[in-house]
Every structure is written in structure tokens, then in C-alpha cells.
# Entry
Amino acid sequence: MELYEALSGRNPLSIDLYVEVLVDHEQALKDSLNKDADDALLCVLADDGDVAMMVIDWDGSVYRNENALKKLHTMWGKSFEANLRHLLPIFSEHICQRNLGVAGIKWAQESSD
# Structure
């Protein structure tokens, strides 16, 4: 639940958790993005009620916490909520296994209506 609340923008993201854990994984995640055909890489972590996240764009730009959330809204547009609901169970499983929640993501296709 804390993961959903934070990623939906209802609860603040933790800069402390980001600095303590996620920052150490930035370069490895950047390197893994270069090997894949994804537009970006999304990484989340929840620990003791705190949640932190990053988005690494195809050009190597790193977006942290609230800026990452803004980037996701830009990338996914109207499909933000559906994508979030799809990824949350996957991330929850990763985190329960004491791993980072990581997923390659794509820009959402704009509908032509």
C-alpha cells in the first residue's frame, strides 16, 4: 500500500532512502539500460514505510523521486494509472525478495482519436 501511495503522489518520496540505497545502483542501472531496447528504466524501493524511485532515460539522464514521478507522468500520459497498477505487484514481489523493483519502460503511444 505504501508503494502505491507514494508512486501515485499521495505520500512523499524519501530522499534519505534514495541516498542510502538507490544512488549506489545508478551506474549499474544506466549500463543495463544501454543493453536493452527500452526507452527508460524505472527503479523503486520501499523500506520501513519509506519509498524512493528513479527513472533513467535512454540518454542517461537520471530523474530522482518527485522528478522521476513527473517523468513517468510525461511518458505514460493517460495510461499512467493502468501502468502503475500493472507494475505494482511485480515491484512488490521484487522488494519482498529484498531486491530493487526494476522494470524497463516505454513511452506510451498517443491515441489517434
